[in-house]
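Lecture 7 notes: from sequence to structure.
We start with the chain below.
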Amino acid sequence: MNNFTTNTYEMKREIVNFSKKISLGLNKPTSKFVLDMQYGLSKGGSCLISEIARSLDEDIKLNYTIERLCDNLNNLYEEEKETIWNNYIKEVSKVLDKDDAIVLFDDSDINKEYSKKLEDLDRVIDASSKDKKTVNGYHVCEATALTKNEKQPLSIYSKIYSCKSKDFVSKNEYTKKSIEAAEDIFGEDFTGIFDRGYDNNKIFDYMSKRHHKFVVRLDDVRTLLFKGKRRSVLEVANSRK
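Predicted structure tokens for the same chain:
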């Protein structure tokens, strides 16, 4: 019991200290909100606002806590979001492996299959389903980097977007911004790891011109010039052990 209490106290202290660092430059109410969100996410293990509110275990009705958190989220200024993100990047940069930087790029989705009235609700391919069905949801562009001592990578770029929103430009634009986020931290010296969704000549061209090392999981319909002959990726892959 003593060890459990000590571990809980140390974890809470680390959350408080980290929250203070990413809240530099913010006013007290916003800093408290950031701490509440950090603690609620860590304790509850869920990004659902109801679970975050429940984890705070406040001596008021749960609905009041949920409303307060939602109001704080809704009222965050863009300048405050930028301050939090810049502080976050400053902190995580200290533990990233910059000598042999590995950055993973992922184009994923958020499934909102049963939602009907969410803002700019888009249609996405549910990658987790066996039949790859199309459902309501949002696209996610994410870039994470490996740390020096931990197995869990840390996010250095994250964008949830919809093709139906007014400010949407293109999927490639978000991909470019995710690569630029890695360049801001590592310069040219990193290796990019891309999944099949990034099998795109524009990506190859961008990475090559900037002298970045990269690995891309190719789509099996791509054709290669292999030993002087045109062959499909699937054919070449099946010929290897």
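Points to note: The chain has two domains: 2-86, 95-238. Residues 22 and 90 are 9 Å apart (CA to CA).
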